[in-house]
């Protein structure tokens, strides 16, 4: 659980925001898998970003009128959109091949690495328990990632497909980790290491202060811009044959697009980023440990998934790592 602090109203609201975002994202995996049975990846994401973009447009325009974007900050906003939104294609594609439970468990890698990144880049204090816990939990994540081989005992075509799905999920989690780091850098949090890195790649923190709403909102438009050509190529059959009848979609995938647009995109991202800017990376990350627990009932009810023996073993190892990391946490 979070570090011991005086539970002020603002701190309570930050914890509540993180918990709500965690639950919303925990259900996202099963929702995505169900919807992908009817909509191909990039078309699904195009609808998601298009709906979000239309809903946010009047509010974004008002915010831009109040606080115009400095042209020198466009590259920062583009990178935030690329890392935070466009990269979601990796986990959507990964969920076509792996289970929602494996995806959720592997997702614990992100908060673990966020703790390490917070220490390395922003000098957030961690102790030997945190370091040991991160290593143990990473081992558990490796067990889950390799679960298809361990569970089947052979390296066949199905195993390769599951491993590919797990690999894509890992790629997304590393991308989201970089998004978290870049978000804090863009908001002006820095260190000597970061200053040297930014100088090397000729980038600087934001010149102006922008609201969380504007930063998240513009990232969705970056996602939309990157999905348009990909969805077009997809529907032209360049990525393989598809069987899509938009006019006769049943209610299920429509609800899936609405869930991913309204709750998983707008609501969860706003809550997460608001809490991120009031918490240390370590405290923010801790709530993501709860995601597999919340995913379990959603996965069982929606897609009849149950954890395998090695998924449970990996989860147990991760849990031990989390307990160690949180023991006497500085």
UniProtKB/TrEMBL annotation:
The keyword Cell membrane applies. It is a multi-pass membrane protein. Keywords: Cell membrane, Membrane, Transmembrane, Transmembrane helix. Residues 14-145, 201-324 form the EamA domain. InterPro entries: AA-Vitamin_Transporters, EamA_dom, EmrE-like. It is found in: Cell membrane. One of its GO terms (cellular component) is plasma membrane. The chain crosses the membrane at residues 42-62, 74-92, 104-122, 134-151, 163-182, 213-232, 252-272, 284-303, 309-325. This is EamA domain-containing protein. The lineage of its organism: Bacteria, Katanobacteria.
